[in-house]
């Protein structure tokens, strides 16, 4: 596993922060943010330049930088598997790719003309840039894929990686998601949709999944990467197995471009459970998508109740990281794996006033889950994209 998040520059740092209930959401003091209606976000404070060469750093958008640093952590933890390049693949999803580069280079074009535009512009803005850079870094020739499914991108990437291994076309897949678009355009757009929290005061109190007083999500950035392996291949090389992706499901609402469909959310969890050979009562906890929006959290809460019941512990770590968009689902998989491995489940920060319409067992502080064997993590995105991953202990 590898991660670059608002609460840590590695998986260990991220996990320690989540277990301690530390938020990475902060005020935006940059000049470009001063006229925005929302001036808070979850920013990655670890500097990717510290882990990249000068040449790498200059050639990549921040999205690619975060993904490459996280993938190197994951690849190192996996023991740099010796695998036939043709059976090594990369699947890294992103919702918005190099949006930051688009904005900066349009401003360069407007101010200085076409000859001032960077020659790296087009390769930096490609949404497939992160998967391409990672594939080149590890020599993967079995495919470098990029699911673009908004906030479900990272989870869908993991599902695609599992499918490649199950289909027999890959032994190892580096999979995950990334987004890095904390900028004036993205914040303004989400604010105009009335999707962002407008809370004033303490930035760390703004993201409140499932809480009665939630009023929108907080923009975040970051990357989450895991190394998937065919079990026989992993065992043959003596790899440490962290857990299993036991079942995956990907669905589409075929409805509204923004509004979610609760029935489809129920279905995607049920399909993932069926793929894992499990039923709702087998699930020990749920890492919810729950972004802190009034309608979205209510719909997902009802879907979780229908799929696994009301008693199972439920958490959303977006309360501390903000919403990493395309990186959110992959980080959710990492949090789920870590909880199964350590027997501790991070709580939902700021869940102080339970919503009477939500009947879930939302945990608000770190809770023991020492007997947990199976869990679900959800990811939903604009466009009606829904992905559920059932993860089981090693």
Name its key features:
alpha/beta; Peroxisomal Thiolase, Chain A, domain 1; globular
Structure description:
InterPro entries: Beta-ketoacyl_synthase, Ketoacyl_synth_AS, Ketoacyl_synth_C, Ketoacyl_synth_N, PKS_Beta-ketoAc_synthase_dom, Thiolase-like. By secondary structure, this protein is α/β, with parallel strands linked by helices. The chain has a single domain, classed as Peroxisomal Thiolase, Chain A, domain 1 (3-Layer(aba) Sandwich), CATH 3.40.47. The protein has 13 helices and 15 strands. It has a six-stranded mixed sheet, sandwiched between helices. Strands 1-7-6-4-5 form a five-stranded mixed sheet, with helices on both faces. A two-stranded antiparallel sheet has the order 2-3. β14 and β15 form a beta hairpin. The longest helix is centred in the N-terminal third of the chain and has 16 residues. The chain is globular and about 60 Å long. The model has no long low-confidence stretch (mean pLDDT 98).
Task: Briefly summarize what is shown.
This protein is α/β, with parallel strands linked by helices. The chain has a single domain, classed as Thiolase/Chalcone synthase (Peroxisomal Thiolase, Chain A, domain 1, 3-Layer(aba) Sandwich). The protein has helices at residues 11-20, 54-59, 62-77, 99-112, 121-125, 129-138, 153-166, 184-192, 231-236, 262-276, 294-308, 318-321, 328-342; strands spanning 2-4, 25-27, 40-42, 88-93, 144-145, 172-179, 222-229, 243-252, 285-287, 313-315, 344-345, 361-362, 367-368, 374-381, 385-393.
């Amino acid at each position: 596993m590898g991660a670059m998040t608002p609460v840590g520059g590695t998986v260990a740092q991220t996990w320690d922060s989540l277990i301690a209930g530390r938020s990475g959401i902060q005020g935006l003091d940059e000049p470009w943010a001063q006229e925005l209606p929302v001036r808070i976000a979850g920013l990655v404070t670890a500097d990717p330049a510290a882990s990249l060469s000068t040449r790498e750093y200059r050639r990549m958008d921040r999205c690619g930088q975060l993904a490459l640093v996280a993938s190197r952590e994951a690849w190192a933890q996996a023991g740099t598997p010796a695998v036939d390049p043709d059976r090594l693949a990369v699947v890294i999803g992103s919702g918005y790719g190099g949006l930051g580069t688009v904005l900066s280079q349009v401003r360069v074009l407007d101010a200085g003309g076409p000859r001032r535009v960077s020659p790296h512009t087009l390769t930096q803005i490609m949404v497939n840039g992160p998967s391409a850079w990672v594939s080149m870094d590890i020599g993967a020739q079995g495919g470098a894929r990029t699911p673009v499914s908004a906030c479900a991108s990272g989870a869908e990437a993991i599902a695609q990686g599992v499918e490649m291994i199950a289909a027999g076309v890959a032994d190892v897949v580096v999979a995950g998601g990334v987004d890095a678009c904390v900028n004036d355009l993205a914040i303004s757009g989400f604010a105009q949709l009335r999707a962002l929290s407008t809370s004033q005061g303490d930035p760390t109190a703004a993201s409140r999944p499932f809480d009665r007083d939630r009023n929108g999500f907080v923009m975040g950035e970051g990357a989450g990467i895991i190394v998937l392996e065919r079990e026989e291949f992993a065992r043959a090389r003596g790899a440490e197995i962290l857990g299993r992706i036991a079942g995956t499901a990907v669905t589409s609402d075929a409805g509204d471009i923004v509004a979610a469909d609760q029935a489809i959310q129920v279905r995607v969890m049920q399909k993932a459970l069926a793929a894992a050979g499990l039923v709702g009562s087998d699930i020990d906890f749920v890492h919810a998508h729950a972004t802190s929006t009034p309608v979205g959290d209510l719909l997902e809460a009802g879907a979780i109740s229908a799929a696994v019941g009301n008693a199972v512990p439920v958490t959303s770590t977006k309360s501390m990281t903000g919403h990493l968009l395309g990186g959110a689902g992959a980080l959710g998989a990492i949090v789920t794996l870590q909880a199964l491995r350590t027997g501790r489940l991070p709580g939902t920060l700021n869940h102080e006033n339970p919503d009477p319409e939500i009947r879930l067992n939302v945990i608000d502080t770190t809770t023991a889950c020492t007997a947990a064997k199976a869990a679900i993590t959800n990811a939903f995105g604009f466009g009606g994209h829904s992905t559920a991953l059932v993860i089981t202990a090693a």
